[in-house]
Amino acid sequence: MNDEHPDEIRVLLVDDQELFRAGIQVILDAQPGIRVVGTASDGAEAVSAVRALSPDVVLMDMRMPEMDGVEATRQIFSPAAVAARETPVKVIVLTTFNLDDRAATAIRLGASGFLLKGTSPALLVDAVRTVHAGHAVLAPEDLATLMEGQFNTPEVTVPAAYASLTEREREVFDGVVRGLSNGEIAAASFLGESTVKTHVGSVLRKLGLRDRVQIVVFAYEHGLA
């Protein structure tokens, strides 16, 4: 835990290239309110570091020897690991390829979005802050493209938890799935933005989901998109 700087965003860097890790660390440590608390060179080290360091955000490379980023993400978001943590952790996938299948799998497992390794320093910093605030770091159309083709079940059962949503909550759910911001949902539904935020929180709680990205994954997984 970080008692000395409680408002600081604690970041863990995971990549098998030492030079890449060093460069990203220089960029992030130069930003106010962000600190790199550790690095890892493969997925196994990442899983151990998450337990030991309690980072807020993990920048996770997908393609690494030994254990790759997909399996590391799976273990980080396993029910046992989530239950054991005192504070939540967010994962941002780092990939060389746009719309990588591994990135899609990691997002299904709980990651909050992906960044290309060639992204600008400004976008990288913004992504860390955005994910820490509970939002996604990929365009809605990219998320839709990633999810399409991931689910090939002709018959799906809508969970009972979805039936517990009120009509207004389902309206907000649909807006999130379409990639609308809280402000855009508010304008379309003639609601206040704070009211929409409350409904989003209620949807997440009722469906047992972590963030807006997982709402989209849930919708595709259960034929609700």
Describe the structure.
It contains 12 helices and 5 strands. It has 225 residues and is α/β, with parallel strands linked by helices. It has 2 domains: 9-138, Response regulator (Rossmann fold), CATH 3.40.50; 160-221, Arc Repressor Mutant, subunit A (Orthogonal Bundle). A 5-stranded parallel beta sheet has the order 2-1-3-4-5, sandwiched between helices.
Key structural traits:
225 residues; alpha/beta; Rossmann fold; Arc Repressor Mutant, subunit A; 2 domains; 5-stranded parallel β-sheet; 12 helices; 5 strands; 12% strand; CheY-like_superfamily
Count of individual helical segments: 12
What's the name of the CATH homologous superfamily of the largest domain? Response regulator
Which structural class do the helices and strands define? alpha/beta
CATH fold call of the largest domain? Rossmann fold
Helix content: 40-55%
The helix/strand order is EHEHEHHEHEHHHHHHH
Rg (CA only): 18 Å
Low-confidence stretches: none
End-to-end separation: 38 Å
